[in-house]
Amino acid sequence: MDLFDSVNDLHTEPLAARMRPRDLNEYFGQHHIVGKGRLLRRAIKGDQLSSLIFYGPPGTGKTTLARVIAGTTKSLFISINAVLSGVKQIREAIDEASENRKLYGKRTILFVDEVHRWNKSQQDALLPWVENGTFVLVGATTENPYFEVNSALVSRSRVFQLRPLEDSDLFEVAKAAIEDRERGYGKWSIKFETGALELLVEKSAGDARSLLNALELAIETTPDNFPPPIDDEIYISTDTAQESIQQKAVLYDKEGDYHYDTISAFIKSLRGSDPDAALYWLARMLRAGESPNYILRRLLISASEDIGLADPNAIQVVTSCATAFDRIGMPEGAFFLTQATLYLATTKKSNTTMAYFDALKAVEEEKTEVPNHLKDGSRDKHSFGHGEGYKYPHAFKDHWVSQAYLPDALRGRIFYKPSDQGWEESVQKSVLDKREQQISVMMEQAPQEVLTFSPNNKERDKWIKRTQGDLNENLTKIKNRLFDNLKISRHFNFLILGDDGGSLTFEAFKRTPEGYVLSGVEGRESYEVLNYYTTTLDSIDRPEIFLGTIPDTEVSFEVLILKNRLTYFDKNKDLISKLLKYIKKDGNLVLTQVIPRESTRLSNIVNNRELKEILLNIEGVIFNKESNPLTNWDSKTVINHVKDLGFTDIESEIIDTTELRVIKKENIDTWFNGEFGDVLNELNISETKESVVDKLKSLISEKEIPWTSRHIILRAKR
Fold first, then answer.
1. Alpha carbon distance 294, 427 (integer Å)
2. PANTHER family, alphabetically (predicted)?
3. 545 assigned to some structural domain
4. Contact 81, 170 (CB under 8 A)
5. Residue 225 domain-assigned?
6. What share of the chain is helix, strand, coil (3-state, %, to 5)?
7. Are 551 and 582 in contact (CB under 8 A)?
8. 76 lies in the same domain as 146
9. At what angle do helices 208-221 and 167-179 cross, to 10 degrees?
10. ω into 14 cis (within 30 of 0)
11. Structure confidence by residue, pLDDT tens digits, 132-190
12. In DSSP terms, which residues pair with 658 in a beta bridge?
């Protein structure tokens, strides 16, 4: 059967039908899918089509592409319109295709126009025959196929989205119709008043059919009698063009930028909270014949791009106005356009949704995988450990727990920066507080506490990370004890050392809005993460981060805070005296320090009596060795040292924090290849080192063990 039967007299057909392209050389637009070298163009020319779905607005060339395929392919071509046909026509097409395949070994291409109009059962009826190759489906739809077409059909088809034609393409369409002597108006001299053809093109809004219909009306109604004698001139005025396109219009400037300039002025007026200007540009667009639906689309975009979370209600208002407009239409629909415009122009503004593009850039730049604890553990938890370590927020206070949700390569990256406008201001503090806690816990995960001391390799002795269950609570506990008993004025300057997690730094920053916070960190990663985060704080007085211990500054500070900077006491006790010059007279020294000799020891967590005895003997030697800078001091040592430096009003308290830790087998190997092993050999115990290590591994490795750390918190006056 012939899909596109023609009639003997082409001029009994509308111009749009007569000018349908007969091959790809006559096809204008859609260069992204049928331009030279494109996949679809190659497939059509090579007659190697697989199932296709053409998706796009009316007048963009979907049916025309089907006609080109029909004129090119050697396959049988069957056409069905989904509006006019049902299961009966599908069965007839299947029978014809099956017979053609069986008798002649030829393929059949089934073209279904408006395929979205079929219901699910009708679409399902096609599926087996597409799968077994009885025919190749070519569907055309104005609706999004991912929502309106059976997902099984979509998954077996290539989907090509056709866009509204560019103005340059529409001019080519008009030129072809004007110059074609056989199917168009090439037998006459068609002239246009300046701006008349441009008006037809602009008002066609990317729809070739609309342009050809308007062109046909303009040309054939201009002479008193059509057709006039061959070679006569037909002059199309701007007024004729306006009447033909059936929209009121104003003249466009010579560059054709009216549409873009006006919508730009409209959106910028909304963004600038000028309701008068926004109303003027709205009225000007509607008077010029701009599509109300286009304006509503731009209002919807603005509701998220320029208002966003400053007023989450904005998107609902515009959506409701758009729905109301669909029901009412013009002219009364102008009320809904006006309401949406005034709402967006007068509400609070925030462009934080632009954060998406920062996240997208990170996706494109970084190759990452989902962190293990965030992976789906329902399928392969036992095989690969996916999902292990994930903390279920609802099981914690306030239904929140600090844990990492970004890949390791993006630790500390900030995309969303909440504004201080409208509703977003109400969540700003919560977002920032949680983010600071996330960063603090994330950076505190780096091993800090040490179990033994080896002069040649301190890094080797640093041991396992904490688990995250109680870490945030412990950090908050220490932070509150440090600050709650410290009398702070808003203008104080803080020097903070050792706060690689940032919790103390951010707290000082919040408590001293007119002051200055300088924070020195030890780790390069902490330096980079905290530096990056501080750039997101909208304040000229944001904390300043430096890498190291001694600052390069001439500023004097009311408060010096040291966090775990005296762990190897003999080696680090001179640090405070070196920093005295930075503390103002009557300034405050505040320090928090874990005391290794008073914290949990291995012997505390082992229940095996014989092994416990061995560990107690080893620890007795290690913790009583006067030369060991890790264990040869306690809280009294710190207090006396501060007193010797001349500080007064010394207050101190001891705090114990407990958290779950996981001891790895390699940690045990490290300890017994170092100081624990050396002492074990010195004690001349009958138990071999290998035996002790094996027993320890079997008893405590890979298990969550409560570990208590003892801290001294000290406050003093210079």
1. 33
2. ATPASE WRNIP1, WERNER HELICASE-INTERACTING PROTEIN 1 FAMILY MEMBER
3. yes
4. no
5. yes
6. 50, 15, 35
7. yes
8. yes
9. 40
10. no
11. 778 888 888 887 787 778 788 888 888 888 888 888 889 999 999 898 888 888 889 98
12. 708
